[in-house]
Design goal:
Strand order of the largest sheet: 1-2
Helix content: 55-70%
Shape: elongated
Radius of gyration: 33 Å
Order of helices and strands: HHHHHHHHEE
Number of strands: 2
Distance between the termini: 111 Å
Oligomer: single chain
């Protein structure tokens, strides 16, 4: 008996037969070029073959194939971008100073306007990086009391910054947007 041997059909080839035309249509619709779509379709098939047995374990092979097709399409678009040669001598980018960073000149002055207890907790926890728990332990306070004290000190610091440095906050984000330090007499 000389039966013609049929190539063994795998889960990859079964899924490919079922979804090949649909994936080609997807690529063709987005690219508008049948030849390029066929080339990218072959890349999708090769990636599926490369998965081997793992492909057979997929619950949704169609979804996997379309995901790979989208990735191949994205890679193709990225490779098609036009690039512009940059001149040899580029100007150095100017570092933007954040408004909150420019408060460094005003902050020491404002700290002197606060009560000693507020100045102490703000200096320790905000400027020197001490944890609230460590501050509480070193000052004989409960953690809740230290947190409460720090919160009140922050509020008083904010009020002092508003007055002494004319700090303004962005209405949307609540972040410092600008400030105008008052000129102190020389």
């Amino acid at each position: 008996m000389n039966h013609a041997l049929k190539p063994m059909e795998t889960c990859v080839t079964r899924a490919w037969k079922m979804h090949q035309a649909e994936i080609f249509g997807f690529l063709r619709h987005r690219l508008g070029d049948a030849d390029l779509s066929a080339d990218l379709l072959q890349l999708v098939f090769l990636k599926a073959l490369h998965e081997g047995r793992r492909f057979c374990e997929l619950r949704e092979p169609r979804a996997w194939l379309f995901t790979v097709a989208r990735h191949v399409l994205t890679d193709n678009f990225r490779s098609q971008r036009d690039y512009v040669d940059l001149p040899e001598e580029l100007a150095e980018p100017v570092a933007e100073v954040l408004a909150v960073d420019s408060l460094a000149d005003c902050l020491p002055h404002v700290l002197t306007l606060l009560e000693a207890a507020d100045r102490d907790i703000l200096t320790c926890c905000e400027l020197q990086g001490m944890t609230q728990k460590a501050y509480a332990a070193s000052h004989g306070l409960s953690l809740a009391a230290a947190k409460s004290r720090l919160l009140r000190a922050r509020l008083r610091l904010r009020a002092a910054l508003l007055t002494a440095c004319e700090v303004r906050f962005d209405a949307d984000s609540g972040q410092v947007c600008c400030h105008l330090p008052r000129k102190r007499p020389s």
